[in-house]
């Protein structure tokens, strides 16, 4: 994840994002790398973007350090796309995202079993982008926004599923008083989950992404 957009405005490359050291996937669902990728437990050198409650946030992904010339996601890397949010107890930059703090606000998986169209295919068609509305009922404060792409092309056995994770730091202004359901990451995912260990090439007719249901606010 290399860019975020606020209400249609590109906020610049690598800004407000905890950048991992490389584009390698996370495969151990029990690792703290599941939170915000490798070296993602601190954002002390990362700025925090102020956004209004109810904002539209777009995440933009690229497999290499370029925006053009190749698919944003390798075409064979098919799977779901999900987004979580967690409120920081103080500042987003000092928040490690541990504990039962994450709320799922977006999920898209297998869209068309007959054509094997996945959420990742839509992201590729959109130039690496997918968007989510930040629920307007969330309280004002600082948050981590965690976007996740799960590639299932070698997920027949565990560990095989490939998690690509990006976390952005935001400060929500306005908002409400909602107290949404929360899970821990790591914690909510298990290697035996049918959304994690799965053969997507064996006439798959339905798919349930890992983790809780989406909370819409």
Automatic annotation (TrEMBL):
EC numbers, comma separated? 1.14.99.56
Q: Name one GO molecular function term.
A: cellulase activity
Q: Which residues form the Auxiliary Activity family 9 catalytic domain?
A: 2-206
Q: Which family does it belong to?
A: Belongs to the polysaccharide monooxygenase AA9 family.
Extract the Pfam families matched here.
AA9
What catalytic activity is recorded? [(1->4)-beta-D-glucosyl]n+m + reduced acceptor + O2 = 4-dehydro-beta-D-glucosyl-[(1->4)-beta-D-glucosyl]n-1 + [(1->4)-beta-D-glucosyl]m + acceptor + H2O
What's one GO-annotated cellular component? extracellular region
A single Gene Ontology biological process assigned to it is: cellulose catabolic process
| Species name | Amanita thiersii Skay4041
Q: Could you give the domain comment from the record?
A: Has a modular structure: an endo-beta-1,4-glucanase catalytic module at the N-terminus, a linker rich in serines and threonines, and a C-terminal carbohydrate-binding module (CBM).
Question: Which InterPro entries did the record assign?
Answer: AA9, AA9_LPMO
**What is the protein's given name?**
AA9 family lytic polysaccharide monooxygenase
Protein keywords: Carbohydrate metabolism, Cellulose degradation, Disulfide bond, Monooxygenase, Oxidoreductase, Polysaccharide degradation, Secreted
Where in the cell does this protein reside?
Answer: Secreted
Source organism superkingdom: Eukaryota
General function of this protein: Lytic polysaccharide monooxygenase (LMPO) that depolymerizes crystalline and amorphous polysaccharides via the oxidation of scissile alpha- or beta-(1-4)-glycosidic bonds, yielding C1 and/or C4 oxidation products. Catalysis by LPMOs requires the reduction of the active-site copper from Cu(II) to Cu(I) by a reducing agent and H(2)O(2) or O(2) as a cosubstrate.
């Amino acid at each position: 994840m290399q860019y975020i957009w606020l209400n249609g405005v590109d906020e610049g490359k690598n800004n407000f994002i905890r950048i991992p050291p490389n584009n390698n996937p996370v495969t151990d669902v029990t690792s703290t790398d599941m939170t915000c990728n490798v070296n993602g437990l601190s954002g002390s050198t990362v700025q925090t973007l102020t956004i209004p409650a109810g904002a539209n946030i777009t995440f933009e992904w690229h497999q290499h350090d370029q925006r053009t010339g190749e698919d944003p996601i390798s075409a064979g890397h098919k799977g779901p796309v999900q987004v979580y949010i967690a409120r920081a107890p103080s500042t987003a930059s000092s928040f490690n995202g541990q504990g039962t703090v994450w709320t799922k606000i977006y999920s898209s998986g297998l869209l068309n079993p007959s054509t094997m169209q996945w959420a990742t295919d839509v992201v590729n068609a959109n130039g690496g982008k997918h968007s989510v509305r930040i629920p307007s009922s969330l309280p004002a404060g600082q948050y981590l926004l965690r976007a996740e792409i799960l590639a299932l092309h070698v997920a027949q056995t565990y560990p095989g599923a490939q998690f690509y994770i990006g976390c952005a730091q935001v400060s929500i202004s306005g908002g409400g008083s909602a107290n949404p359901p929360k899970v821990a990451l790591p914690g909510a995912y298990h290697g035996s989950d049918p959304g994690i260990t799965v053969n997507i090439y064996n006439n798959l007719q339905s798919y349930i992404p890992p983790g809780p249901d989406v909370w819409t606010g």
